[in-house]
Amino acid sequence: MIVTTKKLFEAAYGKYAIGAYNINNLEQTMGLFQGCLMSRSPFIIQISKGARTYTHKKMLEAMIRTADEIFPEAVFAVHLDHGDEQTCMECIESGFYSSVMIDASHEDFETNIAITKKIVDAAHARGIVVESELGQLGGVEEHVSVSEADAKLTDPDTAKEFVERSGCDSLAVAIGTSHGAFKFSGNQALRFDVLSEIQRRLPGFPLVMHGSSSVPQEEVARINAAGGALKGAKGVDADQFLRAAELGVTKINIDTDGRLVWTRVHREYFQEHPENFDLRPPGKVFMAEYAKFIAAKNDKLGSSGQLDAVRRMLGL
Question: Catalytic center at which residues (predicted)?
Answer without folding.
Answer: 81 (proton donor)
